[in-house]
Amino acid sequence: MDHRKQFVVRPGDKLSLAGIDPSYSGAHASGEAALPEIQRNVARMDELQALLYADGNQSLLVVLQALDAAGKDGVVRHLFSGMNPQGTRVFGFKQPSAEEAAHDFLWRAHQRTPAKGEVVVFNRSHYEDVLVVRVHNLVPKAVWSQRYAVINDFEKMLVQNGTRILKFFLHISPEEQLARFRQRLDDPARNWKISESDYSERELWTDYVTAYEEALSRTSTKDAPWYVIPANHKWFRNLAISQIIVDTMEGMGLQTPPTRVNLQEIAAKYHAAEAAQEKRSGKPGKRAAKA
Ligand code: AMP
Ligand code: MG
After folding, report:
1. What's residue 150's pLDDT?
2. Best of 93, 150, 151 to mutate for ligand 1, by most ligand atoms within 8 A of CB?
3. CA distances (Å), origin 213, targets 13, 220, 267
4. Does ligand 1 come within 6 angstroms of the Cβ of 128?
């Protein structure tokens, strides 16, 4: 199953989240059954990240958006923790600092976009500026309503500069959110995650749905598509996202660059160094010992 085709918001379509089952879980009967496939994908993601880094001509930007407790942190932990920290970065976007708020809304996002060879994950993103900002009337409609077009131009520019952009909306039901809030309450190890705003934001669920539907409909493009990922089952969420990332990166035409040295000359230098080393230490080197 190509999860890209299955979950993409087709450019130009008007998204209705009510039409997408957040409990969908595909062909696997359980998380245990899906685990080997998830592990394979994660291992492949790590290989592809190393290749992206070696290739050095393109980059990958993964945007995670969702309501509270939908699993953004879980995606980062489960899917990206195996990637080499040299070449991978994760940014969490919080309420803008005074300095950030004094700039245009893309300023802080642009500073964190991936350099060539890098993978960057946005845990929340510039989309907050048409989501929380809209729902809470933090700026007038005349301001936020202009931002969709600005975001599309911004992302187009990144794409033209060699960045692949994948945007995931983690889709959970209100019931599942409440179940996760309950775990946060019951499990002392998770108490720290609770915030007052979890509950006040939950009251605004339908406003958020409206804001998300418009944002995803207006900014899903061929080069920077949105995917709505059924996320009531954490394992399915991990499976679908890892699969989409692997399929996308495999299609990027990544290649290890040709060597910049003359291998024959270097081999000759190596053997000379080895011979000198043996002479100094009086011990045969590895190759000589084997012979
Ligand atoms: P969390 O992801 O739970 O750490 O929460 C981060 C908080 O920062 C969320 O409530 C976001 O809605 C909020 N936030 C992120 N970006 C913005 C923004 N541009 N304007 C206002 N609030 C934001
Ligand atoms: Mg939160």
Report:
1. 98
2. 93
3. 10, 11, 59
4. yes
